[in-house]
Every structure is written in C-alpha cells, then in structure tokens.
Amino acid sequence: MAKVKFTLKNVDREIRKAEKKLHVLRGKVIKGDQKKIELNLKALKKSHGTILSVCRPATAFGQTFTTKK
C-alpha cells in the first residue's frame, strides 16, 4: 500500500483569515454579538491548535501529515 500525503495549508490559511475578519467585526457590533464572536474566535483557535498538534511542524509548503500503512 502506498502512503497518502496531503496538506492542510489552505485550511490553516482560511482559519487565520476568519480570525482577522472576526477581530475587525468585534468592535463594530453590540455587546451581545461580541460574546458570540468571542466564542467563534475561541473555536477557531482550538481548531488551529488541533491542526498543529496532529500535523508535523510547518514546512515551507504548509502543514502536512502522512497516513499509516
């Protein structure tokens, strides 16, 4: 069996973009919605941490990992 190798670089990039957008919006909404944005930011940070823990350290081409045989 061949090992399958793929990258999560695009996922990592999209998480970072979403975090930036939420930080910009946070100051423009009412307090009730700010709490929702904070929860979304925490979830994004948690998912980014999960990607970092599962994948090897970042390479020049992004996060990668290889499946077992």
In terms of quaternary structure, the protein is single chain
**Mean pLDDT, all residues:** 77
Indicate the radius of gyration in whole angstroms.
16 Å
Low-confidence runs: none
Tally the structural domains. 1
Q: Tell me about the biggest sheet?
A: 2 strands, antiparallel
What is the overall shape?
elongated
Notes on the structure:
This protein has 69 residues and is mainly alpha-helical. It has one domain (8-56). The chain contains two helices and two strands. It has helices at residues 9-26, 31-54, and strands at residues 5-7, 64-66. The longest helix is centred in the middle third of the chain and has 24 residues, at 31-54. It is elongated. The N and C termini lie close together (6 Å). The relative contact order is 0.25.
Observed structural traits:
elongated, 9% strand, 69 residues, single chain, 61% helix, mainly alpha, two-stranded antiparallel sheet, 2 helices
